[in-house]
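Fill in residues.
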């Protein structure tokens, strides 16, 4: 176990340290469409570990081979964070979870059961039967691992007396952290603070464990509810990068960490997170999950530090504090926006990318330099956002890609039908077709389908202008679904139709890989953490 996790555990409620428990790879990744590849999960885990997150919930090991492998590998790689896996309230889940997390320097088993009336009805257990189940499963987990977290799912809609009773049973059985989930985002700040304070005060042994808060954002109150819980005595906040998560998402890690930093005067609690690493991980999570960050999102939105109105700009030039409560550098945004152009060299590109949080190996830099030059030839000025878009572009072809885009020309305008003349290299052979459609993108997608027949559901097609101006790049995200398997692709180009074509083909290539790999994502769907068994 890590120093923060164990030695502080019994006493932390009285300290100013709040543990940050990140569940981007479990609750975040479980949101429909946010599926990440194995390599992407490892990359995000490494970034979380490096930024000083205390506990990483790396996945739900029983859900699939893919989840199990990701959790075990993350457990082996983590250098300082505690690695946690989720398990339902049965020995099989808990054993599987332990098999995955046991490789970690500091492993944790997180087991849970839904305690509210609606959730009790699912496994059809009486209150007494459920109480016994909690005792047995927490004891079982504790026999395997000395760091056990227990959660009464839907705690905020559980009867007070029953909640108190179950928490007491879990503590007596050896749980070291009690997490209080607001599973459907129902609570409000006053209630959230009060619930934690009363549990600590009234449950025997409540002052000897760490209480955690786990909020969902259905009413837009997840951050406020989590901070209120901390005021009530919680010393672990469960959250995700960018607030990624099912429905309206989970509490956003960056909001908690920055709120505690900026308003330390009235919220005197601290975290171990290096805030300058926030922007980089936010961008990576957006890229690999396919869930872009809304422009006006607190802390990590594109506009969070942008000042457009004349009055604001004037004030900012005189004194940045006029309209800014934190500095862009505090969250890892480069203080200056040096613009690169076609005469910029490799060294300038490397320095700029480092500023943006990307440290590239020489071969990666060479590849990026070629793509940067191609863009700079078409675009006078290459801004930070253009470079981020290039880095996020997932269309870098690998020899394993079965399909590659070779040539595309579209005819569009007021006269229908629009048409696309497309050449794809499929399994090494060039194939050409001309297809028509309702607009240039529709025609292009129709051409892809004719050249490589497939039956998938286009779940998401999103276009973002990366910067302003008519020569701006567009970033296109495409999400495809086939029998429960989901794959995303992203591409950036000054031509929106070209970006669309590349993003679609990237997603399709990924889907083909998943199809071959015994459908791990389909397994995740089959075993949801909500089927309490
Ligand atoms: O929201 C929730 O209740 C959960 C639990 C599994 C902790 O994610
Ligand atoms: Zn949750």
């Amino acid at each position: 176990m890590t120093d923060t996790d164990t030695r502080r555990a019994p006493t932390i409620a009285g300290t100013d340290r709040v543990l940050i428990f990140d569940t981007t790879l479990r609750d975040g990744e479980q949101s429909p469409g946010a599926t990440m590849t194995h390599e992407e999960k490892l990359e995000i885990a490494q970034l979380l570990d490096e930024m000083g997150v205390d506990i990483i919930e790396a996945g739900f090991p029983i859900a699939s081979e893919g989840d199990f492998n990701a959790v075990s590998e993350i457990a082996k790689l983590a250098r300082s964070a505690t690695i946690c896996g989720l398990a339902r309230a049965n020995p099989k889940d808990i054993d599987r979870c332990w098999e995955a997390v046991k490789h970690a320097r500091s492993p944790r088993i997180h087991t849970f059961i839904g305690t509210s009336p609606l959730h009790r009805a699912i496994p059809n257990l009486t209150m007494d039967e459920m109480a016994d189940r909690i005792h047995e499963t927490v004891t079982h987990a504790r026999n395997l691992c000395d760091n056990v977290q227990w959660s009464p799912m839907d705690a905020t809609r559980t009867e007070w007396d029953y909640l108190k009773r179950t928490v007491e049973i879990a503590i007596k059985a050896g749980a070291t952290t009690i997490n209080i989930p607001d599973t459907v985002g129902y609570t409000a700040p006053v209630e959230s603070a009060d619930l934690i304070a009363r549990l600590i005060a009234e449950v025997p042994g409540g002052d000897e464990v760490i209480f955690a808060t786990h909020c969902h954002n259905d009413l837009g109150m997840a951050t406020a509810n989590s901070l209120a819980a901390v005021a009530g005595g919680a010393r672990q906040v469960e959250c995700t990068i960018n607030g990624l998560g099912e429905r309206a998402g989970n509490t956003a890690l960056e909001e908690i960490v920055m709120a505690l930093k900026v308003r330390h005067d009235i919220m005197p609690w601290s975290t171990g997170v290096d805030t300058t690493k926030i922007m980089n991980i936010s961008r990576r999570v957006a890229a690999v999950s396919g869930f872009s960050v809304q422009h006006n999102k607190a802390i990590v939105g594109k506009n969070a530090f942008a000042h457009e109105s004349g009055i604001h700009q004037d004030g900012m030039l005189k004194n940045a504090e006029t309209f800014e409560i934190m500095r862009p550098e505090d969250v890892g945004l480069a203080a200056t926006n040096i613009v690169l152009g076609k005469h910029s060299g490799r060294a300038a590109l490397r320095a700029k990318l480092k500023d943006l949080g990307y440290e590239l190996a020489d071969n990666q830099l060479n590849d990026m330099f070629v793509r940067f030059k191609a863009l700079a030839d078409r675009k006078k000025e290459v801004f930070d956002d253009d470079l981020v878009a290039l880095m996020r572009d997932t269309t870098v072809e690998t020899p394993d890609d079965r399909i590659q885009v070779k040539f595309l020309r579209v005819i569009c305008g007021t006269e229908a039908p629009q048409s696309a003349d497309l050449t794809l290299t499929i399994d090494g052979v060039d194939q050409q077709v001309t297809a028509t459609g309702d607009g240039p993108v529709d025609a292009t997608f129709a051409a892809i389908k004719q050249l490589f027949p497939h039956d998938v559901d286009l779940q998401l097609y999103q276009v973002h202008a990366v910067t302003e101006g008519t020569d701006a790049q567009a970033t296109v995200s495409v999400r495809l679904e086939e029998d429960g398997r989901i794959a995303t692709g992203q591409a950036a180009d000054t031509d929106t139709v070209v970006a669309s074509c590349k993003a679609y083909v990237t997603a399709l290539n990924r889907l083909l890989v998943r199809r071959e790999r015994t459908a791990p994502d389909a397994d995740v769907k089959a075993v949801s953490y909500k089927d309490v068994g």
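Residues 27, 181, 183, 214, 216 surround zinc ion (ligand 2) (CB under 6 Å).
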